[in-house]
Design goal:
Layout (H helix, E strand, L loop, with lengths): L2 H4 L10 H4 L3 H13 L6 H39 L5 H42 L1
């Protein structure tokens, strides 16, 4: 094990940080590119790209849904703690969590809608293969 692995981190690792850097716009752009391209002579390669992108897309959708569930649990906790004092701070966090839940829901809906178009395209390519 290298020396860097033994050095303590300043803060614990949080695997949810990847969600902060939103990969959805790049994924949607990739899907749009796949939808815009016509069927090529190499349908096997096209189908492989479609299926890989579908897998990536559904993985991102599941991550977003997990994040939304985590936020909904936090919202429930905050709502239950409002009477415990520090109401102003908790109310502000509650509003922030609510906005994040709404954004996650909108991203999930947008991604799932685009993925359904891509799934239909993959089905069409499979039918011609």
């Amino acid at each position: 094990m290298g020396r860097a692995a033994l050095v303590a981190r300043e803060r614990p690792f949080d695997n949810r940080q990847g969600l902060a850097r939103n990969p959805i716009p790049a994924l949607l752009e990739q899907i749009d590119d796949l939808l815009a391209t016509s069927s090529s002579a190499d349908e096997a390669a096209t189908l492989a790209r479609l299926e890989r992108t579908l897998t990536d897309g559904y993985a991102h959708a599941l991550s977003l849904e997990a994040e939304r569930l985590r936020l909904e649990r936090r919202m429930t906790e905050l709502a239950g703690e409002l009477h415990d004092g520090n109401r102003e701070q908790k109310a502000e966090e509650l509003a922030q969590v609510s906005r994040r839940i709404s954004r996650a829901g909108a991203e999930i809906d947008r991604l799932r809608g685009t993925l359904s178009k891509l799934r239909a395209r993959a089905t069409a390519v499979r039918a011609t293969a």
